[in-house]
Amino acid sequence: MYEHLVSFKFNDKFDPAMERELLDVLHAFKGKIPGIVELTAGVNVTEELHNMHGYTLGLRVTFQDREALRDYGPHPVHQHFVKLLDGLLDNVVVVDYPI
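That's the Dabb family protein sequence above. Prediction below.
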């Protein structure tokens, strides 16, 4: 299996009211994208503000294998989410590793 971690840092064009919509789209990945074993997503509530660095939304997806992880990127459901973020991101951090 493979773990896929993503942290999102939004720019000043981002309306925090969009967080719920983005989370709903992310949570729907599990039923629509093959190979997802487990998925969690949420708003960053860390009390370690000095370590937050402006990253306010997180995603963790467990994939059944490396092929599922590779197929995820171009999948139309994922690409729809990417389009929702257009012009709203300051930065994204992605970490993938086998488990």
